[in-house]
Amino acid sequence: MIQGRLESEGIPTFLKDEMTVQVHNFYSNAVGGVKLQVVVKDVDKALQVLESTKEEQPEAVVFSKGEIEDNDTCPFCHSENISRVKKANWLTLLPFLIVGFIFPVYRKSYTCFECEKKWRVK
């Protein structure tokens, strides 16, 4: 995506180690992943383009269970095009330290693909 953005601005780019990572995906860490390269004279322009395209990650809004009736729609735009993500909570580590066995404790968060807002329900 970044390569396409830079080339649309007229900055020629080159992907280094692209084929190595595609053919031998376990070598990715060894070679440092795929590297996007630009010509030295275009570095300042490329950095300006990349800086202008940075997006700020929206903060997650926390709702209580009483505030949200339906977990299948976005509370902001009422779209059904949402994603549910389970992330391990720090409480997962506590039973492991006490019992020596992991009891996963997850925290659910939601993301709306229409309005790009994130929220959690406590």
Task: Characterise this structure.
By secondary structure, the protein is of the alpha+beta class. The protein has 2 domains: 2-52, no CATH class; 60-121, no CATH class. The protein is 28% helix and 25% strand. It is built from 5 helices and 6 strands. The chain has helices at 2-8, 18-23, 28-31, 43-52, 93-99, and strands at 13-16, 35-38, 60-63, 82-88, 106-112, 118-121. It has a 4-stranded mixed sheet with strand order 3-6-5-4, with no helix packed on it. The protein has a two-stranded antiparallel ribbon with strand order 1-2. Strand 5 and strand 6 form a beta hairpin. The chain is flat, with a radius of gyration of 21 Å. The mean pLDDT is 81.
What secondary-structure arrangement, pairings included, does this model have?
Layout: H1 2-8, E1 13-16, H2 18-23, H3 28-31, E2 35-38, H4 43-52, E3 60-63, E4 82-88, H5 93-99, E5 106-112, E6 118-121
Kindly state the percentage of residues in helix. 25-40%
Q: Report the end-to-end length measured between terminal Cα atoms.
A: 35 Å
Shape: flat
Report the radius of gyration as a whole number of Å: 21 Å
Q: How is the largest sheet built, in terms of strand order?
A: 3-6-5-4
Strand content: 15-25%
Q: From N to C, what is the helix and strand string?
A: HEHHEHEEHEE
Mean pLDDT figure: 81
Question: Mind describing the biggest β-sheet?
Answer: 4 strands, mixed
Poorly predicted residue ranges: none
Q: How many β strands by DSSP?
A: 6
Q: Helix segment count?
A: 5
Number of domains: 2
Judged by helices, strands and strand pairing, the structural class is alpha+beta
